[in-house]
Amino acid sequence: MAQAPPTPPPMSATELRDEARDFIASSAESSHATDSPGRSVETAPQLPAAQDIYQQVFPQLSDLAEQRNFIGIINIAELHDLNGLNDKSYTRLLLIAPLVLAYMALDDLTPAQHALARLPENVSLHPLSHALAALLASTSERKYENTYSRAQELFQMSQQSDFPDPRLGKTVALLVNEFLDAFRRNTFTLVSRAFACLHVTEAQKLLGMGRQEVLSIANNSHWQFDSASGVLRPPNASLPAFVATKPVPPSSVMTFDLVVNGVTSSEVY
User: Fold this and answer.
1) Half-sphere exposure of residue 244, counting CA atoms within 13 Å on the CB side?
2) Minimal CA–CA distance to 171: which of 218, 197, 132?
3) CB atoms inside a 10 Å sphere around CB 100
4) Less crowded by CB within 10 Å, the N or C end of the chain?
């Protein structure tokens, strides 16, 4: 006899609330004690909409995200995720999503990978988990254009009306933007040290920005721009660097692996 296909994970806010309510209801059955046949004794009244530990902790994480306190997010989320009960609940994403994005904002990718890897199968199959994993994979591999496009996809997902929790959506959107700002700053710093010059179109790919935005940032950082050739030159003549006139191999002098892994895979001028 053929088996029916597995039930998909809850997607909407209503479905997630139903899933959490079912868990609470099943736990509440033990709150009635029977002292004789046909008669039960009620325990002390309970709040009707009790929250699990993930729901209780999330407001703290949201506040810390507003403060850009990534270390605080990591410390609290790690503590309660590793010690939480009902780890197969989809409400666990209230901790995991801010945790992963906080690690990424600090460019600490290995523990972010570990946080996603310890999710049970049902939670790891949730679309939000998939989006986080895709963004993390592109970032780890320094696939710059994919990183920006997947960050945009995650941001847009967080703004949809059927996103599991509007509060989580706001926090995810904020942390995605913080990650992108940090990722661009790190990329800009490393490229300015690793290259003597590069074409403006390559800078656009590496920073995920339009031409005018790149030129504005370069000008504010005292880069020189040759409009005839479209070449940017950072003010680092005293540093060892690549002359980006063709694809280049890793430097034996510099150890900018994060740049080399991504930049040498694209055509530079």
Assistant:
1) 29
2) 132
3) 28
4) N
Six-digit token pair at 155? 């941001």
In 3D, which of 212, 224, 269, 214 has the Cα closest to residue 245? 269
pLDDT above 60 (res 1): no
Are residues 90 and 10 in contact, defined by beta-carbon separation less than 8 angstroms? yes
What pLDDT, in 10s, does the model give residues 154-203?
A: 999 999 998 989 999 999 999 999 999 999 999 999 888 888 899 999 99
- Dihedral of CA atoms 53, 151, 267, 240 in degrees, nearest 10, equals -60
Which tokens sit at 137? 């994979």
Question: Half-sphere exposure of residue 204, counting CA atoms within 13 Å on the CB side?
Answer: 11
Q: What are phi and psi of 197, to 5 degrees?
A: -165, 155
Average pLDDT, the chain: 78
